[in-house]
Design a protein that fits this description.
The mean pLDDT is about 95. This protein has ten helices and twelve strands. The chain is α/β, with parallel strands linked by helices and about 260 residues long. A six-stranded mixed β-sheet has the order 1-2-3-7-9-12, sandwiched between helices. The chain has a four-stranded mixed β-sheet with strand order 4-8-10-11. A two-stranded antiparallel ribbon has the order 5-6.
């Protein structure tokens, strides 16, 4: 993609793609065109069997400010018909995606992080849901996803006060997987992606889906429903390769089938 486009895509090696929000003049906020561009990037990631992990990032100054309010005032909302808000919030990819956060991830910026599976953040970043302080409501998933990731009363404090917290606090609460020095969030995310790549791709994808549904299923449903995701993995060539590699004390060579 050209530098004039709001979403930039860059492959790192054979299996990782970095998707960068690039609207610095609007603090990486989303209008309709940006949402559709992100949806297209996510669709391309899903469709490419060689790609096994994606990283979503912004600039060194801001991850994303969420919805572009100037565009919204003109009726230009940052959402798509299929994947919803910002082209990802309602339907994140089935394969893993990591948020690499520098600067501020506020409002929809935090909701973008919550749509990702893992979060790597600079120590100096700030995250929060400031909507209520502006007489708005966070309708991009933040109000129902955040209480599933951190304690209820702390999620409620963020929602009711609108005050942002430092990434270090979110790391203490378990929302942020890894903290880095300023300017190193993408590097940290690439390192975490390499750890994901070391695992078998079919097993990673199935495991993600089961974890994603953990809050939707009761125990009885979970025992039954997880089989649909696990069955293809248990019948795969990669399972046999994993067992052989373990017995032979070597690294496995995954084929994704």
């Amino acid at each position: 993609m050209s530098a004039s486009e709001p979403i930039l895509v860059e492959r790192h090696g054979d299996h990782v793609v970095v998707i960068r929000i690039d609207r610095p003049h609007r603090r990486n906020a989303f209008d309709g065109a940006t949402a559709h561009a992100l949806e297209a990037a996510i669709d391309a990631y899903e469709a490419d069997d060689r790609l096994r992990c994606a990283i979503l990032t912004g600039s060194d100054l801001v991850f994303s400010a969420g919805q572009d309010l100037i565009a919204a005032a003109q009726g230009d909302l940052g959402r798509t018909a299929r994947r919803g808000g910002f082209g990802i919030l309602a339907q994140p990819p089935d394969k893993p995606i990591i948020a690499a956060v520098e600067g501020h991830a506020l409002a929809g910026g935090l909701e973008l992080c919550l749509a990702c599976d893992l979060i790597v953040s600079s120590r100096t970043a700030k995250l929060g849901l400031p909507e209520a302080a502006k007489s708005l409501v966070a309708v991009g998933g933040g109000l129902f996803r955040l209480p599933k990731r951190i304690p209820y009363h702390l999620a409620m404090e963020l929602a009711l006060t609108g005050q942002p917290w430092p990434a270090t606090r979110f790391a203490e609460l378990g929302l942020v997987n890894r903290l880095t020095e300023p300017g190193q969030a993408l590097t940290g995310a690439l390192e975490l992606a390499e750890a994901v790549l070391a695992a078998a791709p079919l097993a990673v994808r199935a495991s993600k889906q089961i974890v994603r549904h953990a809050y939707d299923w009761d125990d009885q449903e979970a025992w039954e429903n997880q089989r649909a995701y696990a069955a293809p993995v248990l019948a795969s060539e990669d399972l046999q390769e994993g067992l052989r590699a373990f017995a032979e004390k070597r690294d496995a060579v995954w084929k994704g089938r």
